[in-house]
Amino acid sequence: MPGTDNAKVSDCNSDYSSVPKNYQHILAFAFAVKEINENPNILPNISLGLHILNSYYTARMTYKATLSLLSARHRFVPNFKCDNQNNLIALIGGCMSEISANMAIISAIPKTPQLTYGSFLPLQGVQSLFPFLYQMVPNEAYQHMGVVRLLQHFRWTWIGLWAVDDDRGDRFLQTMMPLLSIHGICYAFVTRIPKWNYVDEMVHSFLRHITFNNSVGDSVHFDDNGELVACFDITNWWIFPNGSLVRGKVGRLDSQAPFGKELTINDDQILWHPSFNQVLPISVCNDNCYPGYSRKKKEGEKFCCYDCALCSEGMISKQKGELHQWPDYMDACIKCPEDQFPNMDQTQCIPKAVSYLSYKETLGITLAILAISFAFITTSILGIFVKHKDTPIVKANNRTLTYVLLISLLLCFLCSLLFIGQPGKVICLLRQTAFGIMFSVALSSTLAKTITVVLAFMATQPGSKIRKWVGKRMANSIVLSGSFLQAGLCSLWLCIFPPFPDMDMHSVTGEMLLECNEGSALMFYCVIGYMGSLAIVSFILAFLARKLPDSFNEAKFITFSMLVFCSVWLTFVPTYLSTKGKYMVAVEIFSILSSNAGLLGCIFFPKCYIIVLRPELNNREQLIRKTK
């Protein structure tokens, strides 16, 4: 053990008295040996002695002092012993770890147990190198983590570091700096202080598995690495007005406790310095960011110093809790779950509303009433035509095609109801394909009526060979082929890319759009495009045949109906792509109703006017007169 050359006690009559630390250690050591020898319950029939040598804090003198302890008294001959009463049973190292390491090199040769004292020996594989070395100071890693836990407990993130200006201070800084950064603590400055000696207590140990309780009742034992297993007390120095100091225990650091629970502290027992007004002092670089804001790094500053920036769209930050009456806010903004969105202040996530076109809202009710009304009108017109099926105006325009066209228009109006209400698996499969097929039947019927008008006029010319093409077979072939092509296209769509119910979480803020995913946008526009091609062909033929004699002519009415159809669906595409959710569905329903209504009104309203209001014009003589 190191001695001291200048150990002294000042005169008690002087203004002050001081005892150097090394001399305090010597006194404590001598007192411990005296107590053990006088207590028969500790080491019965054994008396301990002590021999103290000075290391002078140099390796050379440490080696020499250690070798002299292994020699006979007054003879420097290592490993030569002639005194049976004075047996060397253990060595105690110096207060610095370097001294203990140098001693361990020598003591390992005769396998003499050695105890460290004062500071932990931070060597890799120390137990394998020095199997007879027992470290009486707990591993400093526990103390380092304890400091971090203490700073975290009080939320002190802006601190200063003091370290002894030697190798030990270097190791301390190399360990603590990254440890602090990992746990979100910054240091404002680092100060190196002159070298001084550390204080700790020495405890006797001579067996590897010894376990005993010290005078205050704490268990003392070593782990498998020869390191002392111990806890640390958190003490609070209480300063009274008269200048006296009292040290009180306010907490404990237990190295054996579960991770994150090593520190136990009683905040209500802490007495802060009067300058703090008995309130927990704050040690941060700047204030916390308030809810709705997050940290933004300041260029050239440590990470504990930051600006506060508003959370970006779709993200929030909020208060996590409270400690010592200071709110603790989140360090960074977080994204809300998909089924939630931020409130106006971006401080919490609130559930999104499920949105779809339903029968319970005004828009859905209005469109449903329109669809049913048009379906009723179509049914009424069909009834009128059936009732007057033998009149010239009905027979002159291909009665069968008229019935097919009216039934297909009726079904198209009813198909629009599939677009209203909560989308389901069956509904999603049916609504686009059913509408596409029904509307294709209507357009094919219109095309057949147009071709029939043209062929009928051409067949009246002398010597025309077109006469054999005029008839129901030709019209039926056009309707069936036009409808089957669309049915085949829809079947391919359902087999390869079937529509399905889907939830769009991102298109509209604050809403989850329950909709039918079309499966394939290409197939959807192919169906719309096919109907458009039928309408364009019908429009061109009807436009060219618009000046044929009135007795045969439906062409001018078909021209207007196809013009309405093409106008509606040309405006449908950009409008459909620019809307989302239930409004996108409403655009399609409106397009279906308006284009169907255009066909119904342009083709059938003039005929209904004659049949119902001007029956005198619905006779063969009037038709023949118009022809002439």
Structural notes for this entry:
By secondary structure, the chain is an alpha+beta fold. A hairpin with a 6-residue loop joins strand 18 and strand 19. Helix 7 runs antiparallel to helix 9.
Quick summary:
The chain is an alpha+beta fold and 628 residues long.
Kindly report how far apart the N and C termini lie. Answer: 140 Å
Q: Helical region count?
A: 15
Percent of residues in β-strands: 15-25%
For the largest sheet, list the strands in their spatial order.
1-2-3
Number of strands: 22
Mean pLDDT: 80
Structural class: alpha+beta
> Quick one: biggest sheet?
3 strands, parallel
- How would you describe the shape? rod-shaped
Comma- or semicolon-separated keywords:
628 residues, alpha+beta, 3-stranded antiparallel beta sheet, disordered N terminus
List the helices and strands and how they pair.
Blueprint: H1 21-38, H2 59-69, E1 91-92, H3 97-107, E2 114-116, H4 126-129, E3 133-135, H5 140-154, E4 158-164, H6 167-182, E5 186-193, E6 211-213, E7 219-222, E8 228-229, E9 231-239, E10 245-254, E11 263-265, E12 293-297, E13 306-310, E14 315-316, E15 319-323, E16 326-329, E17 334-335, E18 340-342, E19 349-351, E20 353-355, H7 362-387, H8 392-395, H9 399-415, H10 425-459, H11 472-496, E21 500-504, E22 511-517, H12 521-544, H13 555-578, H14 582-613, H15 620-627
Parallel strand pairs: 1-2, 2-3, 4-5, 20-22
Antiparallel strand pairs: 6-7, 7-8, 9-10, 10-11, 12-13, 14-17, 15-16, 18-19, 21-22
Helix pairs in contact: 2-3, 7-9, 7-14, 9-10, 9-14, 10-11, 10-12, 11-12, 12-13, 13-14
